[in-house]
Amino acid sequence: SQEVVSEESEEESNGVNLMEFSDEILLHILSYVPCTDLVLNVRRTCRKLATLCLDKSLTHTVQLQKDYKVNKDKVKQLMRDIGKEIYQLNMAGCYWLPSSTIDHVTRCKNLVKLNLSGCHVTSLRLSKMLSTLQHLRSLAIDVNPGFDASQLSSECKATLSRVSELKQTLYTPSYGVVPCCTSLEKLLLYFEILDRSREGFMLSGQLMVGESNVPHYQNLRIFYARLAPGYVNQEVVRLYLAVLSDRTPENLHAFLISAPGSFAETGATKNLLDSMARNVRLDALQLPKAWINGSGLLQHLKFNNPFYFSFSRCTLSGGHLIQRVINGGKDLKSLTSLNLSGCVHCLAPESLLRKAEDDIDSSILESLVVSCCNLRHLNLSAAHHHSSESIGNHLCQLLSRLKHLLSLALPVCSITDVAASVEKPPTTPNLLPQTFGRKVRTGIQTYPRNSGDQANQKIESSVFWALMGSLRFLETLEIIGSSFSSAMPRNEPAIRNSLPPCVRAQSVGDSEVAAISQLTYLQSLTLAQLPNILTGSGLVNIGLRCQHLRTLSLANLGTMGKVVYMSALMDMLKHCKCLRDLRLEQPYFCAGAQFFQALSHCSSLQRLCIVSRSGTLQSDAVMSFMANCLEVIMCHMFMGESLTVCKNLQQSIVRSFQAERPALNVVIFPLLHEDLTEVIRDVPMRHLDEITLFKSRVAEEPPNLWW
């Protein structure tokens, strides 16, 4: 017994005591702990931590965004303990907190930056809060139906007059607080106004009575507007732009408008663009496609040190891109983010006589790569970028020179080897010969457990394997079929039929997916419409090697009649310990006991979304999964089950887990039900925008646009 005691004491003397670390190291460790835990729990453990947890480096900026365990009482106690020490407070997306929680923000007298996007704030509460925040310079809020600017007090308007950065999400036609912000330098507008009310009445884009005040743009440096689908959003944004067309701010250096569909140019917007061409030099540009197509605008605009360009969905040809934007490679080393999503002719010299499926001109892409050598975010999705048979000029080979890339989006047909796509016919059941006599079994074999060796034999010599090997620090990758469209569009009924994949994409499958496993630092992966997935063996490789993976989105892999990769997916999930968001979109998906048992290994999972036409689910398996995975706060399932089954399961989940998980958001609904759009409109914008709706997110916005 004496020997055992001596051994234990020796281990204790040789062991490392956390409290013996320097304050600098401890502060760095504590910076990864949510502020609510630091202040309400960790600082109560010992005197040293009590002091460190209140260090200015930890209390200066408080992030409650995605802190799904925080509730009203915790916020109240947090503000009471360190409110005066907080200079930046981010509560974006805290949709589950009652509006009365905002009252406690008044304790933060020294606030300089405040983000309340996605929070419930009435105009009266906003007025009361802002009246006490005299140092505020940056504000983000939502403007909901019922907002009344006349209820803002003079003290509130005085605070707003000093605000230089404003982010405003509009759910109703309104100027919001923009007319009160007379010192604006950065204005971000998100238009989420629906064309119809819940009662079915058509809405108008006209502003409410008493909202004719003119915005003040004279000091504006950054103007950004993102529109959801709908004509009302277009009408309202034109009212915001009308003031800009009269007098363009001299210091404007970023002008960005993201508008889906057709957004026609008017006389006022043409005057605005002409004025910009004469008077300003831009660093960031994004315009609706109708404003660029067929015009010589890009030839006249002047750029300073551009860091972001988006020409999404434009018919801009590669020739115009090189001549008018890249300008022979001059002054483009500063460009870090480029969005060419849906630009079907951007890698071709001309667009007039060219078909979308024709081969690209590699010299244009080479000029782009050489000129923009510091690119960190590049989006080439939603187009057919087919490489020719010229040696060394494949798209993947040229992109491998961009060593600084952090995020990349490509169409499926762009990553295939030219020889493989020509030699290998599509592997579909329809191509099997019809014979008499003994039937031929065409089922899919179970994938090999040692899948790495088998896949590597084919792919290690391919251009895509080489590309993945050269982009070692890539964090976000999207490989999306050029004709893919999600079954869940924004404001329309679910799509029942999907377009077939590109012919060049028919050979892309398991071996290409295996190549992705080389990306050691991969955090977000999207794969959509890869037709030659036979077993999904490459997914297991990714699960084993990409240990930092946090977001995974898979859609329409392999044949549409059967989920051929289910076995591999379940094996993959057992290794994804850091996975937080999972989105699956696949017809006939069976969300049964085996799937949810495998998914339960993802101990960090927070959000799950499954979209499946004719898909099935097992209610008991879902309930067991929710009980085992304590971090899950979002469960969205749009399947082929009946409305009764969906409603009963949704109610059971809410009833069982809502009390323990204040942020819990559950939507289980038939995918093809006529009321789907009404259900979607109640989903918190954070979940809807980040996971429930499918879209390409690479270079969607300029980097570091807000916080």
UniProtKB/TrEMBL annotation:
Q: Where is the F-box domain?
A: 15-62
Q: What are the BP-aspect GO terms? A: SCF-dependent proteasomal ubiquitin-dependent protein catabolic process
Q: Please, which domain of life does this record's source organism belong to?
A: Eukaryota
Q: What is this protein called?
A: FXL18 protein
Q: Name one Pfam family in it.
A: LRR_FBXL18
Query: Which Gene3D superfamilies did the record assign?
Result: Ribonuclease Inhibitor
Q: Where is the signal peptide?
A: none
Originating gene? Fbxl18
Fetch the InterPro entries from UniProt.
F-box-like_dom_sf, F-box_dom, FBXL18_F-box, FBXL18_LRR, LRR_dom_sf
Q: Which CDD domains match?
A: F-box_FBXL18
| This protein's GO CC annotations | SCF ubiquitin ligase complex
